[in-house]
HTH tetR-type domain-containing protein (Mycolicibacterium obuense), 177 residues
Amino acid sequence: MGHKYSRDEILEGAVRTAVEHGLGSLTFGRLARHLGTSDRVIVYYFPTKNALVTDVLVAIGMRLQSVLAGAFPTTAEDHRQMAAAAYPALADRAVDPLFAAYFEACGLAAAHVAPFHEVAPRLMSAWVAWLAEFFTGSHSRRTREAEATMALIDGLLLMRHLAGPRAADRAAEALGL
């Protein structure tokens, strides 16, 4: 029959599969073949593709947050200070595959592909709420600064993926980061 996988082992395999082959190609069958098990084992822990994709995106987000948490100051004055602290930690080849999966999810969400168009906005809201905790002031101000931080970081990292690291580094320098 093969190895009996735990939910965490299956999720880790799903993250690896998504990062290596893309989120769009993440299926129960492909993941089962990658793990050497039956797709019924996958479905036992993740009854729908939506559940699997959601948990994969959350796991990727948690990994990215752990990279960022070490780079961020306890509190930041504004989005520029936060982006300046984050960019060097994120402009790392080791993190690039995680961001490639993140940007793929964003593209699929923008194209209204299920389940990405449902999951991505919730994840973006969770990221903004997490980032807002690093700022001081009113809830409205912290939210605006968190959104601005996301816009700056995402723009730079998208440029890194599409135009290359040097172009993104030049843009970060021009932005004063």
User: Anything to note?
Assistant: The two ends are 54 Å apart (CA to CA). The mean pLDDT is 91. The chain has two domains: 1-47, 49-174. Residues 63 and 98 are 8 Å apart (CA to CA).
